[in-house]
């Protein structure tokens, strides 16, 4: 009768040893996974911070580029005669004048040119309608280019 009790105790001891080793393996696996998760989280946080910095830098560069385009320090043109575009149509004259004076950007110029056909208006009227320039700027452009307002628009 003692032999089955000894065998039973040995089986119980082996069972306890197996449970303990499985628990230790589980704990060490969990620790290594937690360390790996912390490393990945720190890399993620760094990348998010770096991305935010890059976005801010991009915004700053875009603003600088826009300012440079608007405040072109090149030759300021006061009339269409200075450009030697007397043969050019009114749209080109106004476009060049407004761009050179930094009143509109190249993108705004392109948008206004595209909208002219849709709105059936001249260049200055489209720029006014889109809010790129104000009435005072429009009048200055007209005066500088010696263009008289026409009573009828096409």
What is the structure about, briefly put?
This protein has 154 residues and is mainly alpha-helical.
Structure explained in plain terms:
With 154 residues, the chain is an all-alpha fold. 75% of the residues lie in helices and 0% in strands. It has 6 helices and no strands. It has helices at 2-70, 80-83, 90-100, 106-119, 123-130, 135-144. Helix 4 packs across helix 5 (123-130). The longest helix has 69 residues, at 2-70. It is rod-shaped, with a radius of gyration of 38 Å. The termini are far apart. Residues 73-80 and 147-154 have low confidence and may be disordered.
Keywords:
single chain; 154 residues; mainly alpha; 0% strand; rod-shaped; disordered C terminus
* SS content category: mainly alpha
The total of helices stands at 6
User: Largest sheet, described in full?
Assistant: none
- Taken as a percent bin, the fraction of beta residues is under 5%
Q: How many E-type strands? A: 0
Ends: how far apart? Answer: 117 Å
What's the mean pLDDT score? 83
> Could you state the order of secondary-structure elements as H and E?
HHHHHH
Low-pLDDT windows of residues: 73-80, 147-154
Helix content: over 70%
Gross morphology: rod-shaped
Radius of gyration (CA) equals 38 Å
